[in-house]
Amino acid sequence: MAKALFTGTGVALITPFRKQETIDFSSLEKMINHIITSGVDYIVALGTTSEAATLSESERAALCQFIVETVDSRVPIMLGMGGNNTRAVTDAIGQTNFDGISGILSVTPFYNKPQQRGLIQHFKNIADVSPVPVVLYNVPGRTSCNMTAETTLQLAEECPNIVAIKEASGNMSQVMEILRCKPANFNVISGDDSLTLPMMAIGANGVISVMANALPKEMSDMVHFALKGDIKKALPLHNRMLPLMNAIFEEGNPGGIKALLEIEGFITNSVRLPLSKVSKTLYNKLTTLYNAL
């Protein structure tokens, strides 16, 4: 059941803001409906791309409730629930209403730089208290903490409630080792848009995508072709989107994807400090690349 839920294209959903930096729920509703009708398989709420670190507790609760109500069980929802204080994360899980939530995405602890044995205990504690499946999230470029293949595999073997990893290390040797040795019912999900097709070609189950906010049909089509083993049809879509995939990250995430979504007419290009909007140069580049699709 859990494996099917988190196979295919997941969207790392952005949080639209108005110019006053209040949440733009109207634009968010339009985006959610658009990405679902475009064929995505699930939505990730309150992940990195949502700017969750800059949202207040009440804003996070309101966003979660709004997303659940707007999705209305049309696709599964994965909820971002991580942190660098294990007890705080497990307490938050215990206080969360999981109605409408199919799983949680939990990032490796940032700043603390834990040892691998600390990571194992951290995620075992989370898996023990979570009433829904847990997806690990390894993104050392943001956390300064890499979860090794050995640690991932130990958690996959010892914790039935840990069902997948979003691997965003960019280390293909590490990804290949996980794919080579993982249990059959454990998913490996790409955390890098540009590496999705290469990872799926060697056994990954899909992507949690930033680009799918703006190009949900193209990303979903590519991933679904790859799941069927039809690389011949997936590759042209990958090549078509690749320049734009790379460009949206040139000045950080979600600045690039929010600029692109404004170009498409979905949102106002607004981020919260300490993030800033992309430069005019990059904005113009995104416009050119999008118009050339």
Can you describe what's shown?
The chain is α/β, with parallel strands linked by helices and 293 residues long. It has a single domain, classed as TIM Barrel. Helices cover 46% and strands 13% of the residues. The chain has an eight-stranded parallel β-barrel with strand order 1-2-3-4-5-6-7-8, surrounded by five helices. Strand 3, helix 4 (86-94) and strand 4 (103-107) form a beta-alpha-beta unit. Helix 7 (149-158) runs parallel beside helix 8, helix 10 packs antiparallel against helix 11 (231-247) and helix 12 packs across helix 13. The chain is globular and about 50 Å long. 45% of the residues are buried. The model has no long low-confidence stretch (mean pLDDT 96).
> What are the secondary-structure elements, in order, as H or E?
HEHEHEHEHEHHEHEHEHHHH
Q: Could you tell me the number of beta strands?
A: 8
Per CATH, the superfamily is Aldolase class I
Number of alpha- plus pi-helical segments? 13
The largest pleated sheet is described as: 8 strands, parallel, barrel
Shape, per Cα inertia axes: globular
Quick check: average pLDDT?
A: 96
Low-confidence stretches: none
How far is it from the N-terminal to the C-terminal residue, by CA?
36 Å
Instruction: Report the β-strand fraction as a percent range.
Output: 5-15%
Radius of gyration: 18 Å
